[in-house]
Amino acid sequence: xxxxxQQQATEAESQLKELQExxxxxxxSACTLASVVSSKFxxxxxxxxxxxxxxxxxxxxxxxxxxxxxxxxERRLRGHLEALAHYDRRVRDLLEQxxxxxxxxxxxxxxxxxxxxxxxxxxxxxxxxLAGVESLSRLYGLxxxxxxxxxAPAEAADLGPxxxxxxxxxxTPPGPAGPPTAGGSGVRTLPPMSSLPVTALTLLCLxxxxxxxxxxxxxxxxxxxxxxQNYRNLTFDPDSANCHLYLSQQGQQVKHRxxxxxxxxxxxxxxxxxxxxxxxxxxRHYWEVRTSNHSVTLGVAYPELSRxxxxxxxxxxxxGPSSWGLCVQEDxxxxxxxxxxxxxxxxxxxxxxxxxxxxxxxxxxYSLEPKAQPLHTFHAIxxxxxxxxxxxxEGRTLTLCHRPEAKLPPGLxxxxxxxx
Length: 420
Known about the structure:
elongated, 32% helix
């Protein structure tokens, strides 16, 4: 019997050693892979920035040349008008001359201005200016998520799956410090590289990073780990969703489609908005969302937020006293409350966080890529329950990120339930 026990112990130690070796290989492989991919994307961004600079320079040069030509033509035309006016005055003075001899002499010296001539065309061709960046539109389409496999919305905190396995197909259960996943299943599955469009994949592979590999930034910064202490798993309220908004992934994801799904219910937004089923009236709460692109608005609102369009705005988040919102646009962001906007710098990345501290009357929006940094903080005395609420432009997708270990604090279970 002792012999069997000893045999099992030896086998367990052997398996443990093999597991540790595989884990070490996985961590090394993942760091190398992340560094290589980061370097390739850095090269791509540098190439795009250089292309942008050249394109803008070409536009500025063409504009300067065209406007210089326009000013030259303007001076020519004004000079011709002045010559005509001078000739007209001399003719009138001559007609008033009473001495015939003087009239004959001066009329022989009077010569009209030369012909006006045609207007010189200004060299300005919009199509020619856009021709140089037409390939970027195709590249943009190739790099979009459409047609590729769905990805987990939050960045991986620990890529450690496969030892010597093919790095194109990785899956691993996140550890306690791992970031939230879109499905909340605890397993991260990265799409195979073959799912990317061939042209985009080829472009990425051909971009060689100059010099040594760039250092890999820490996947999860300390500030974000601290925010996770109050993490809440949220779901969308289907009854509040506009008829163009489709919910999926058990209420974690919403997508705007052109075709309406059905007739709107009495509690659904007339605007392209949806709110969460959970609300909060005290304590501190944090959640994260991933957007497919810009042109989205996220915020919180009292239950009284109007379901109908009010004024010229496309959404009503932050347009009145009962809501606070962050509008993310292509080149900038705006913080809205009570109809007043504060312009903010552009948001980098598509992963955003919201920290709601009801005790101190604070609502902070965070940009989480490449690291957590605050975008704007509202200070207010919140007097009613607050519901997370969102607006999406056509074609956009928004995902509520979940963390497996996230739970509501005691006493907030009923409070976080959806409205009756």
